Amino acid sequence: MSIINTFVCECNGINYCNKSNFDQHKKTKKHIQYEVTKEIKMLKIKLTELENSNNIKKNKIESLINENNALKDAISIMKDLTFSKNQKQLETINLIEL
């Protein structure tokens, strides 16, 4: 029993009995078109992954900006309340001194 090495092409599923026949097939228009189509498909997938990644980052940035703005608003409110409380205390002290 002898072992025969064959070369199978993805584009057509055909077994080629030797490398030179397989290499010759890889130069055909059909095989080249298959390779180009396969590469375009992989590039589209990669592009989609990058776009999704960028959208996730963009959404995270927007979320952080919104959180930062909410914190600024809260600080501003706290400052106003503190100023108002201090103002009332000063008025009370002034009334006591009179």
Written description of the protein model:
The protein is mainly alpha-helical and 98 residues long. The protein has one domain. 79% of the residues lie in helices and 4% in strands. It contains 2 helices and 2 strands. A two-stranded antiparallel ribbon has the order 1-2. Strand 1 and strand 2 form a beta hairpin. It is rod-shaped.
- According to DSSP, the number of beta strands is 2
Poorly predicted parts: none
H-E order: EEHH
Query: How many separate helices?
Result: 2
Q: Strand order across the biggest sheet?
A: 1-2
The largest sheet, given as strand count, sense and whether it forms a barrel, is: 2 strands, antiparallel
Q: Overall pLDDT, averaged?
A: 88
